[in-house]
Design brief:
Blueprint (H helix, E strand, L loop, with lengths): L3 H17 L9 H13 L1 H4 L6 H17 L9 H17 L5
Length: about 100
C-alpha cells in the first residue's frame, strides 16, 4: 500500500514544477493544493458510478475540482480552465507514474 504522505509529496512536487513553469493557478499554498488534489483523485470512483473514463476523464474531473476549491468564483474562471487542466495533468502524471523511491 502506498503511503499517503509519499503520495502528497509527489503531488506537491508536481505543483511546484507547475509553479516553476509559470502556471498561474499553481501559485497558491502547495500543500493545500496537494491535499485537495489527493482527495479529489481518490474520490473519483465513488463520485462516478459509470464505467471509468480513463485518465483523461480523471484529469478533467481533477481540473474542475481544483477550480471549484481554489477559485472564489469558479464560474468566472473561464480561460483559467486551460491552466487548471495543465495543473491537473501534472498531478495525474505524478500519481500514475510508478515511484522510484
Amino acid at each position: 500500500m502506498t503511503d499517503p504522505d509519499d503520495v502528497r509529496d509527489r503531488i506537491a512536487r508536481a505543483v511546484e514544477l507547475a509553479q516553476a513553469e509559470g502556471c498561474p493557478v499553481a501559485g497558491g499554498e502547495v500543500r493545500q493544493i496537494a491535499e485537495v488534489a489527493h482527495r479529489r483523485w481518490l474520490s473519483y470512483d465513488r463520485r462516478h458510478r459509470a464505467p471509468p473514463g480513463g485518465v483523461g476523464a480523471r484529469v478533467e474531473d481533477l481540473a474542475r475540482g481544483l477550480r471549484d476549491r481554489l477559485e472564489d468564483d469558479p464560474q468566472a474562471a473561464g480561460p483559467l480552465m486551460t491552466d487548471y487542466r495543465y495543473l491537473a495533468a501534472k498531478v495525474a502524471e505524478a500519481l500514475t507514474t510508478p515511484s522510484t523511491g
